[in-house]
Design goal:
alpha+beta; Rossmann fold; Dna Ligase, domain 1; D-amino Acid Aminotransferase, Chain A, domain 1; 5 domains; 9-stranded antiparallel sheet; 8-stranded antiparallel sheet; 32% strand; globular
């Protein structure tokens, strides 16, 4: 048994912090690696040592095995934990770690090879007798062969990256005419995310549940399963809500799926933590989907219902220790649900968001756990996955866990960057979810565009924002006037002062009249509505009631959350200084990213809806389409270049009638 004395975590964000906390509890020195974009990130500040590994883009830092190994050498690490994502399922990296004489806290490279390739893993599972979805996983990667295979399987089909995971490199294809585009986008996304553009096809099982089994094996071949997680609530094939146990799995079904997962692990001589994923249909039949040869994002729900620390078990097994448990020792107690907090805009097709986190204050309480990797003042980078944190709640039963999770989300303000927090609460409140009926079609069936769009600020939000702007200007005036008593603020010899505060949000401008009415008390008039606002420390009262407002004032901006809705307001003096106007023919980047494709040239005619370009951001491919008809009058961006949100990509000169 070789003890781990110093552990380098080859990852970032919340998973790096989560691994480091357990390692430090075990008395192990922890080492962080970081890119330039993460120089002041929480995982770097937490570690005992930290090593820079390159610029912001993952391909120039976190995905460079040699940089990671050099960091281990210079910092004195004798073990590396890969976390999830990045190099965690890269067999070549696992081999290099072991060849360097270091302990790899993960499965053997051969097992990663066997399961990291979806085509090979499916062949292995068929041989092992594990039920599999009908599909195509052969070596011929020509479009012609895929078209023929899709016809044989029958539409709809799923196009999948063979080396992929996390929903990347996946496209649902409903009809033959969609297959060419689905193949092209899946290849491009897979090559970018995994370095391989090999694809497979699978029969699309519509409205299935996505159930996965957590398994664990030691170096002696002892393997157990730790129950299931239901990961059916997904958007764009990426998980949003996970829970354990599944409301749709009976004890008999759990035993059958668990045994199939154990057989899958034994077939490849697996060691460590792994997850075998299945799709289940309405009849209760289940089919092997893939095996993730790493720790899963959603592992906390398993920890909360089993009482086990999976990272501690990973470390023990990597040191050569036996599991010291049998299947009978593992019991599930209560229920746990996890929500993934993403920097994204649900109203814009879940487009990843970037920007500065003005305020992050995670909730705490009985049965609540928050795994985060962010802090107030931190910039959300365009270079990485948009997940910011995970909020998990446990309860004696599912309903208690659900209610606790809603309360924890509502009590965890995240201001300054667009997020899916409100959307997560909406999911948990839907009857289909609360009654345990959610399938992978849940979001598309339950949510309309109106549900996903951020609501416009109401009169109360406008009143609060106006008072905060007013208070900010008063504070600034007081700070610039030494010797003036704070008691003289708002005093006037002519009676009450009425101040019109002008500010704007992303949609329109607003003018609110603010009148001081006492110490830290104000009357705000929004149109014909008058609202009483009182400020007591950090609490804001609205019409005599504690409004439950989270807020932060940052220079010319006010960020606030009210009734679960986030708003950002900016003083019009600043807005006027920035020319935000633009032609309808301006095609701008919707987010920071790399321009990977450009489908038009100067002078080319386009119609509304035509594909213009593809932008890669946060490991996903985003198509940019024309909003008007016309001709391309100018092209400003170059393929392969990094461009910022709002940067001009090209201009379209509108045809008559489209001005």
């Amino acid at each position: 048994m070789t003890p781990i004395r110093s552990l380098l975590v080859a990852n970032r964000g919340e998973i790096a912090l989560r691994i480091m906390r357990t390692a430090r509890r075990l008395g192990i020195r922890v080492i962080a690696v970081y890119s330039d974009a993460d120089a002041q990130a929480p995982h770097v500040l937490f570690a005992d040592d930290a090593v820079r590994i390159g610029p912001g883009p993952a391909a120039e830092s976190y995905l460079l095995a040699e940089r990671i190994l050099e960091a281990a050498r210079t910092s004195g690490a004798n073990a590396i934990h890969p976390g999830y994502g990045f190099l965690s399922e890269n067999a070549a990296f696992a081999r290099k770690v072991q060849e360097a004489g270091l302990i790899f806290v993960g499965p053997p490279a051969d097992a990663i090879d066997a399961m990291g390739d979806k085509a090979e893993s499916k062949r292995r599972m068929i041989a092992a007798g594990v039920p599999c979805v009908p599909g195509y996983e052969d070596a011929d990667q020509s479009d012609e062969r895929f078209h023929a295979a899709a016809q044989e399987i029958g539409f709809p089909v799923m196009v999948k990256a063979s080396a992929g995971g996390g929903g990347r490199g996946m496209r649902l294809v409903n009809a033959p005419e969609e297959l060419e585009t689905g193949l092209r986008l899946a290849r491009s996304e897979a090559l970018s995310a995994f370095g391989s553009d090999i694809l497979i096809l699978e029969k699309a099982i519509l409205q299935p549940r996505h159930i996965e089994i957590q398994i664990f094996s030691d170096q002696a071949g002892n393997t157990v399963h730790m129950g299931e997680r239901d990961c059916s609530v997904q958007r764009r094939h990426q998980k949003v809500i996970e829970e354990s146990p599944s409301p749709a799995v009976s004890p008999e079904m759990r035993d059958a799926m668990g045994q199939a997962a154990i057989e899958a692990a034994r077939a490849i001589n697996y060691v460590g933590a792994g997850t075998v994923e299945f799709l289940t249909d309405a009849s209760g039949e289940f089919y092997f989907l893939e095996m993730n040869t790493r720790l899963q994002v959603e592992h906390p729900v398993t920890e909360m219902v089993t009482g086990l620390d999976l990272v501690a078990l990973q470390i023990e097994v990597a040191q050569g220790a036996p599991l010291n448990m049998t299947q009978e020792d593992i019991t599930l107690s209560g229920h746990a649900i996890e929500a993934r907090l993403y920097a994204e805009d649900p109203g814009q097709d879940f487009r990843p968001a970037t920007g500065k986190i003005a305020l992050w204050s995670p909730a705490s309480g009985e049965g609540v756990r928050v795994d985060g990797g962010i802090a107030s003042g931190q910039q959300v980078s365009p270079f990485y996955d948009p997940m910011l944190a995970k909020i998990i709640a446990w309860g004696e039963n599912r309903e208690i866990a659900r209610r606790r999770l809603i309360a924890a989300l509502e009590g965890s303000p995240l201001l300054g960057v667009t997020s899916n927090k409100r959307f997560l609460t909406q999911i948990l409140e839907r009857p289909a979810f609360s009654e345990g009926r959610a399938t992978t079609a849940f979001i598309s069936e339950e949510f309309t565009q109106a549900d996903l769009d951020a609501p416009a600020p109401d009169a109360r939000a406008l009143a609060v924002a106006a008072v905060l702007f007013y208070r900010g200007e008063c504070d600034a005036a007081l700070a610039a006037s030494p010797g003036i008593s704070e008691k003289l603020l708002n005093w006037s010899s002519t009676g009450n002062m009425h101040t019109v505060i002008e500010f704007g949000d992303a949609e329109q401008d607003h003018a609110v009249t603010v009148t001081p009415s006492g110490a830290q008390c104000y009357a705000a008039k929004v149109g014909e509505i008058e609202i009483a606002i009182a400020i007591h420390g950090t609490s804001i009262w609205i019409n005599g009631r504690n409004g439950g407002v989270f807020w932060v004032r940052d220079h010319n901006d006010v960020y606030l959350e009210l009734d679960g809705n986030n708003h950002c307001f900016t003083r019009l003096s600043r807005l006027a200084a920035e020319d935000a106007s633009g032609s309808a023919g301006d095609v701008r980047a919707p987010m920071h990213g790399v321009l990977t494709e450009l489908h038009v040239k100067h002078g080319q005619s386009v119609q509304a809806g035509d594909r213009l370009a593809v932008l890669e951001a946060m490991k996903l491919q985003h198509e940019i389409r024309a909003e008007i008809a016309g001709s391309v009058s100018a092209i400003m961006a170059t393929i392969g270049n990094q461009i910022g949100a709002g940067d001009l990509i090209l201009e379209i000169e509108a045809v008559d009638g489209n001005d």
